[in-house]
Amino acid sequence: MERADPVLCAFIEVWGEEALRRAREVDARVGAGERLPLAGVPIGVKGRHGLRAADPLLAAGCVAVGATSVPGPGTAWQTWGLGRYGRTVNPWRHDRTPGGSSAGSAAAVAAGLVPLATGSDGAGSVRIPAAWCGVVGLKAGNGRPPSTDRTGLMAPGVLARSAEDVAAYWAVVSGAEREAVTVAGTATATGGGADTDGMDTDGTDPDGPPGEYDAPTAEWSPDLGFDSPDPDVVAVAHAAAVRLAEAGALRLVRPRAPLRLDDPAPAWLALRTPGADPAPAHRIRAANDRRLSAFFSGARLLLTPTAPTSPHGHEGPGERYSTALTWAFNLSGHPAISIPAGFGPDGCPVGLQVVAAHGREELLLDVARAAEVHDGGGGPGDPGGPGSLWTGTCVRI
């Protein structure tokens, strides 16, 4: 971090001495016989106030080493993060943005400064940086776990270099959620940081005996029926979807009719604008909810490009919304994940967005892990074998 961050500007603050103190506390807890599923894992937390959202991870033994960058005052939210040394750059191309608003978290994970960093996603703020920095980014279903966002659009999320690390995050966070429900007296669960030990959150072994993986059905949509993403981005994401199907990670099925959602932009902006008339937003949300409910009654997964464009430069995105393909699922509350799909002609990563029905985060993780297994272990810094989703390596600072 000392060597790389003056270039990347991924952190607002680095907590060196505090991290060492916390690490010693983790050592003491382990030495006393406490079982910590993520003992000693160094993490970045989004923004100066990110420690509270990271409470379940800290309780599981993670050590927060710093606050990652977010857009600064007067900085357009679509554009870049502002770290302690300046604007945050994309580790793949320093003349491009890492995306926002979880900019520093994505850049720090992509460059290998931390294996995992927290994020929050109100319109795509985890998935877009994950796509543009070539890492895995999960947006949990809205309300799982709870968010303090008054509009209900914001959901917690995480960025990591592998699906297995994201699964470890989710096991802990969803375990904390079950514990909270138990304390409230509305359910019975063991709660507490879940012990992953290679097991899925439902107690099954995701690797299992050969041939036991049940490939879920999936439908491809390049544009959700309203957007016009760049053809190069669509081609890379679609090719990744086809490779996943060929590898047995999912089963692509032809839609009975193309999915056509209403553009969520007016609804999202109205809900975020104090004093705006919410009626149009409610109409758009209700119409899209009906269409998505019908969609997931016939297929288990929806596949799209994560972002409609490649990472833009630091001057800003112009008139185009990088959120065009993501914020529909903040309105609907569906869980979604961005996984690396490959690279565009500009050498920047492209993400494949995978969306599942409400409450099916584990299905997204199953598919992401199956993709990495069939991909030969590919991921940032590991091009994998023939047919890999990855065709390049992130340049280290």
UniProtKB/TrEMBL annotation:
It comes from the Bacteria. It holds the Pfam family Amidase. InterPro entries: Amidase, Amidase_dom, AS_sf. GO terms for molecular function: catalytic activity. Residues 57-182, 283-365 form the Amidase domain. Residues 186-210 are annotated as: Disordered. Belongs to the amidase family. This is Amidase.
